[in-house]
Amino acid sequence: MAQIEGFWDIKPEIKKVFFPIRGKFGVILQDGREIIMPISAFPSIKKVPTAHRNKWYLIGNGFTWDECPEVIHIEQILGNYAKYNHEA
Fold first, then answer.
1. Residue 59, domain member (yes or no)
2. In 3, 14, 70, 73, which residue has its Cα 20 to 30 A from 47's Cα atom?
3. CATH number for the domain including 28?
């Protein structure tokens, strides 16, 4: 049986959130993938004070901060809501 390439059957789970350079943030998934995105695509992150951004925590299959009224879910990062929709 041939090995399937890629991440087809792996449920993405967030391991770490980081801020590598000004205006960008990244997410490391449990499977080793790293995704870098512009903060401008996530206005709720822009509202979190820079000094507090490393104080994120996981909630469900997403992450947030005490200063943030929203949870950033994995489907917002991967762009496939139908496959990665979060719990209600």
1. yes
2. 14
3. 3.30.2020
Q: How many domains does one find in the chain? A: 1
- Count other Cβ atoms within 10 Å, centred on residue 28: 14
What pTM was estimated for this model as a whole?
0.82
Give how far Cα 50 sits from Cα of 29, 34, 36, 58, 62, Å. Answer: 22, 21, 17, 18, 19
The pLDDT tens digits for 43-80 are 999 999 999 999 999 998 899 999 898 999 998 898 87
Question: 16: which strand partners?
Answer: 28
In a domain, 4, yes or no: no
Note whether residue 67 is domain-resident: yes
Find the angle CA(13)-CA(48)-CA(79) to the nearest 5 degrees: 35
Please check whether residue 69 lies inside any domain of the structure.
Answer: yes
Whats the size of the chain, residue-wise?
88
Name the one residue in this structure whose structure tokens are 């200063």.
67
82, pLDDT greater than 80: no
